[in-house]
Structures are given as C-alpha cells and as structure tokens.
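User: ok so my PI wants both of these folded by tonight, can you help

Assistant: No problem, let's get them done. Here's the first:
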Amino acid sequence: MGRGRSDEQPLRVAIAGLGAIGLSVAQALDEGIAGCRLAAVAARDIGGARQRVAGFRRPVPVVGIAELEPMADLVIECAPAELFAEIAEPFLAHGKVVLALSAGAILSNEGLIETARRHGGQIIVPTGALIGLDAVTAAAVGEIRAVRMVTRKPVAGLIGAPYLVANGIEIAGIREPMRVFRGSAREAAIGFPANLNVAVALSLAGIGPDRTVLEIWADPTLSRNTHRIEVDSDAASFSMSIENVPSDNPKTGRITAQSVIAYLRKLHAPVRVGT
C-alpha cells in the first residue's frame, strides 16, 4: 500500500475534503474498518471541519492540505477538482496511494501519472457509480470497439456546470428532458467537472477519454442520477444501467462513499470479490 509503513501497523488514511462523501467515509473509519485508521482530515474550512468531527470516538487532527502527506499512507481525495494536484502530488512523490474521487481531474493533470510511475505511487479510481467496471476492465484486455454512455440527472445536479454557463444553456425552468451535451468523456470532464467522474472512470477502464462517447440529459422528472452504458468488444457486448440515490450533495450519488468504504474493507478482508 505504499512505502513508509509496516504491514503490522494499521494503514494510516487521510481524507482531503469533508463534504457529504468525505464525512461519510470519515464516520465509517471512526466506527472501525479492519486494518485502517483515520489519521487526519484536511479541509479549506478548518473550523467547520473540526465541528463535524468533534463527536467522533477518536480525536482526529484537522489540518491544511499541505500538512497531510507526512501523516498518512493513503489519501482519499474528496475535494473540488481544482485541488486535485495539490492533494495528490505529495503523496505520489513519496510512493503513496491516492484514492481519487475527482477522476476527471486526472485528465487535466496527466503529469501526475508519471510522478506515480517514477516514485512507486498509485492513483486508484474507485468503482463509485459505475456498475460493471470490472467487466469493462476485463474487456479492455482484448479489443473494445465502442463505448457509449447516456447520463440523465435531476436539474439541480447540473445547474452551474461550466459547460452550461459557457454556452448559455438554461435548464432551471425546463419541463421536459433536455439533452445538454454530446461529445467525448474528455470534453465532459472539462465541462462538467463536478458531475461526470463516472464517465472518466469508464473511459480510463476502457478505450480512453477521446473515444468514449457521452450524452448528458437534464431531466426534471428524475430524483436520481441514472447512467446507461453500452460496450461492444471482441469478448462480449453488454449494457448496464444504474439509478443512484443522491447524497446530501445533489451532484454526487450516495454509492460513491459506499464504494470507497468497500474498497477500504477489501484491503484486509479474508475473501476479496472483484478485481
């Protein structure tokens, strides 16, 4: 799991960002995950973060982002995408692990992949809302011919996205589903940085961000984020769909935090299911 720790010692886990997802993971770690220990939390609002962890069973330091790396072996990045490099670089440069929720930020910080390679670090993108990620990864061992994803989101989850603002697309008062984007996963990561990490994860698992085709719909009839994915490969052709219950943050599904918790539980589990 990276350098600087003995296998007999619990994995020291830091969380960068204490919004809906970060807080859920922090609470799970405080309640107990075998082989892991919550070592520190970083947040821009340090005072607010201290209040949020004040009731934890075990005291946890709340620090600035720059102070995190020496305190942990693994950092869970739950922050705004623009902070990704600031959080990830120190851990990767010291051969440690970054669990990245802002998967889209990897595409705009691809130099960090070389940093990880050079120093023995690792960037991990959790499964999150992408049901069937293992199947896509397996298909990519052979040849994937095409990947298409259609995402439909409640209007509140898309309002304020940079792509909509830049193109003057108004969705606040729509009464029917409206397609607001069609393009590549790379373009979507730029235009919808808080919304489409799932599409970037799909592209990284499959045929890359430039060949993965994505549609985004704003749908006033929905209360859940929905994704439908179609994959055509030499091993199998398959489709999958999922409806995600939103977390306290309407841009993010509840299953995202649960995916991170599941990953941490797998690390020391006697039986591990899935690649």
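One down. Here's the second:
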Amino acid sequence: MQVKENTPKAIILILIGMSAVTLQDILIKLLTSEINIFLLLLCRASLGLIFLLIFLKIKKEPIIFKTKYPVLTIIRVLLFYTAFILYFFSLTKLSLATAVTLFFVSPFFITILSIFFLNETIGFRRWFALIIGFIGVILVMDPKINNFNIYTTFPVICAFFYALTMIIQKKTSHEDSLYSQVFHIYIFATLISLIIGFIIGNGNYNDPSNEHLQFIFRAWSLNNINIIFSLLIIGICGFVAFLCIFQAYRIGSPPSVAPFEYILIVLSLIFSWLIWNETLNFKGYIGLGFIVFGGIYTFFRETKKHVQITIDKPLRR
C-alpha cells in the first residue's frame, strides 16, 4: 500500500521519539547505582517484546519470528546487544551529554562500512565530512596521554557495532521484515540476559570494594517500587521511540527527517546540566559542532547520490 508522505508529521514524531530516548537514557543513568545492567536489559527487552506483540495484534499485522538469514541474524543481535551494554555502562562513567554526542559517530561508520559490504562509492566531499566528524569525536573524547579515559571509547565502539547491525539489517531486509528484525533483537536480549542472570544474578561474583564493576555484578533485585516503576517507564520509552522513529521514516522524507535526530544531543546537554550539573568542555562543544556538521552534510550528500543506507535508518532505536 502506498504511504502518503507527511514530512511535518514525521518531524514531530522524530522529536517525540528522541524525547522518549532521552528520558530512557536519563532513567538508566539514574539507576546505574542501584541495579544490575543485565536485569535492566532483560526488563527493557521483555517489555519491548510484550508491547510489540500487543501492537501487532491490534494492527492485525502478522507476527513472524523466523528469519531467512540465521547466521547474519545471530551476528546482528549479538552486536546490537554488546553495543548497548557498552553504551549503558559508559553512562556510569561519562556525562550523558558526552555519551550521546560520541554515539552520533555512527553515521560515519555506516558510510565507511557501506564501501566494503554494499559496494558503495564515496567521493571527496563525503570523505571530507567523515574526517571532520572524526576530528569532532577526538575533540569530545579529549584524549590525554597520561590520563586517557578508556570509557570515552565505549560509546564509539557502540556506534561501530550499531553501524554493523545497520549494514546487516540492510542486507537482510529484503526477506526479513522490520518487525521480525526487532523481534530477533528483543528475543535474543531476553534469553541471553536470563542466562547471564542464572550465572551471576545472585551476586556471588560481586566485589563490593570494586565500584567500577558494580553495575555488572551487583545481585539482581526488584524489591524497590521506584526501580520497578522506572524499568516500566524505560520499557515504554524504548517502544514509543521505536514506533515514532519507524513511522517518521515511513511517512517522511528521510533527508528532511534524519537531521532532527540531533535534537537528542541538545536534550542530553540540557538534562545533563540540569540533573548532574555536567556538560561538555570548550573542546567538546567544538567537537560537537564538527560531528553535527559532518553528519548532516553526509545525509545531504547521500541524498544527492541516491544512497539510502544512512539516511533511511534511524540513528537510535
């Protein structure tokens, strides 16, 4: 069925979706001192799975779990799961503004990977935009020889893994629908988190004196109503973000919609300052400008070149 284009509505949906992602990230950062990361991932994925099943039932859409690409699907969901372990863990060590800004290097990775896996060609101008973007990443990371913060690499590695999942998704999208691809992510995250929970969920491997690994090895517990409520909101936010972003790219012009995803950085800067009194340093703001410029320029160049791998996919989901 032909979908009627409505870019203004799509932009509103993107803004709602990015607001939901911001709320999700804020709650996750607030919970990092109280919950285990794998319990968080389990609740987020299982709630998303339930909401998606209900949504498809209401829409009378087919519920399809199988895939025509089992090996690629396993690689994709494993990369996706690992990516957001790194991202959420980085929230324990970095400001929200820094983590979100560094994640937005993903369009550059997607563009580079498309050369090797999708046989795309990149001209001088897009290479220039990529270089500008990566200079921006270095400025935000602000590496120091004697005091390098290893945790600043986590959102960047997350972005790289995420880019790989987008490339794989592009290659498998002809046979596997978007909904089934999301099902695969939710199901894998639920199962692997449960397995990890059986192994370390009782807290036997936790060392209270090592505060750096508390988020990973802390005993699983849901005896706090505030934590339960927060996890429910996180699950809802993740699903709302998915629906809004997917629908926005479905009804809107991707080149017009994609740049509005950068509102996530603005919201993260605002709330990072309001809640934690944290922000980027002067170099970080310059780097942020480079990243945004490089990303938006890449979107528009790919539009002119009729390249869809970056501009037809959301940067966060």
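The two ends are 25 Å apart (CA to CA). Residues 7-304 form one domain. Good luck tonight!
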